[in-house]
Design a protein that fits this description.
Elements (H helix, E strand, L loop, with lengths): L7 H4 L4 H23 L4 H9 L17 H14 L1 H19 L3 H4 L1 H8 L4 E3 L2 H7 L7 E6 L2 E11 L7 E8 L8 E8 L5 E5 L12 E11 L3 E3 L3 H14 L1 H17 L1 H8 L6 H18 L8 H29 L9 H14 L4 H15 L3
Parallel strand pairs: 1-4, 2-4
Antiparallel strand pairs: 2-3, 3-7, 4-5, 5-8, 6-7
Helix pairs in contact: 2-4, 4-5, 4-10, 5-9, 5-10, 9-13, 10-12, 10-13, 10-14, 12-13, 13-14, 13-15
Length: 380
């Protein structure tokens, strides 16, 4: 296999979308990948990717035709092969669009969604804390108090990505108990420039610094009906959770392929000694190809709400994260000292792979959910 090739699903007669993303990835993105890793937020590149359709391919068309999750995942992989941070921000933009379109709220599905699809505006997702809360890992950090015309939201989310002062993201808050003692969660689009919202810089990360990640503080933030995505939120999350997690597989596929390519890049010089290493590029390529084929099959039914389907999605996502770390580490071993240089794409990819493994849902979160859901599926 040619070192520059992606898995067959990405490289066999690429669609116009994949060609467009490949041109952006191998051109302007490749020249900025190191700077993005160290803190440069690539707004222009993200807008180019959005304009190509890469971050809206999964959305339902205006004529009612279902979106193509498989193509969206493959487009994300094309960018992630060059820069995992950009692939991650593509995922953020993808799911922000999903939140708005699946909301059923005309105020979110009209001009605001159209501008998002065109890349005129950019957004992210603040569901890391809620997903952990639903898995009983931590408590919800945002609290909503009902008021006339909407809610007042208070609290802090420590890590939210793909943000800037004029961006927005999906968030979930717990609603104050009513008179009967019942509680629920409410999901909404949080505008970073709204009164009561403050973005604060996070501590320096080991990599992925250019992802626009901030701590978001809310003090009496008013959320009106135009910004509500779902109330209550849990039934809505059950509908979109498969696609939400599955899209992340595009980041993993790209990071793994980039690692494999860097192994082939030194095969001519170092193959005589690299042959004694484990996780050789041909072995990793076969495993990646099989995983991508599995993900493409799952992408045919992203709104399947069955427990069995979601377990399969979680398992594919976990496999991708684990394969990322193996492939990135093996690439470092294959390249040797040159891969240990700080400016090396191999060194950067090691940190990107670690991010794929710890970003929500992290491997431990995935395995916990798989165990819980599998236990529920077992007959009494």
């Amino acid at each position: 296999m040619n070192a520059a090739d992606l898995p067959p699903e990405l490289s066999t007669q690429p669609t116009g979308l994949i060609k467009a993303v490949r041109a952006i990835a191998q051109g302007p993105l490749a020249s900025q990948a190191y700077a993005i890793d160290r803190g440069a937020y690539p707004a222009d590149i993200l807008k180019q990717l959005a304009a190509s359709g890469a971050m809206s391919e999964h959305l339902t068309r205006a004529d009612g035709t279902p979106g193509d999750y498989g193509q969206a995942i493959l487009a994300m992989a094309e960018a992630s092969k060059v820069c995992g941070a950009t692939g991650f921000m593509m995922w953020c933009q993808c799911v922000a669009g999903l939140y708005m379109q699946a909301s059923g709220n005309p105020a979110l599905m009209g001009e605001r969604l159209a501008r998002h699809i065109a890349g005129e505006t950019l957004g992210g997702t603040g569901l890391s804390n809620p997903m952990k809360s639903f898995a009983q890992i931590e408590a919800l950090l945002l609290k909503a108090t009902p008021v006339e015309g909407g809610y007042l939201v208070n609290g802090t989310l420590p890590w939210v990505s793909n943000l800037a002062p004029d961006h927005y993201f999906g968030a979930i808050a717990s609603v104050q108990l009513d008179e009967s003692g019942a509680g629920r969660e409410m999901m909404f689009m949080l505008r970073c420039d709204a009164p009561g919202v403050t973005l604060k810089t996070c501590p320096e990360f080991s990599g992925m610094e250019g992802t626009g990640t901030y701590s978001v503080h809310c003090k009496d933030l008013f959320v009106g009906t135009d910004d509500v995505v779902a109330d209550p939120a849990k039934p809505y999350i059950a509908r979109i959770r498969g696609g939400f997690v599955l899209l992340q597989c595009g980041i993993a596929a790209g990071v793994v392929q980039g690692a494999i390519d860097s192994m082939w890049a030194v095969e001519g010089q170092l193959g005589h000694v690299n042959q004694f290493l484990e996780d050789r590029p041909n072995e990793l390529q076969a495993e990646l190809d099989a995983l991508v084929a599995r993900v493409m099959k799952l992408a045919d039914t992203p709104f399947d709400t069955s427990t069995e389907y979601f377990i399969d999605v979680l398992d594919a996502r976990a496999h991708g994260a684990e394969l990322c770390m193996r492939a990135a580490n093996s690439a470092l071993m294959h390249q040797g000292a040159r891969g240990y240089l700080m400016h090396s794409e191999v060194q950067r990819r090691v940190r990107e792979a670690q991010f794929v493994a710890i970003v929500t849902p992290a491997i431990k979160h995935l395995r916990k959910e798989i165990a819980r859901l599998s236990a529920e599926e077992m007959p009494a």
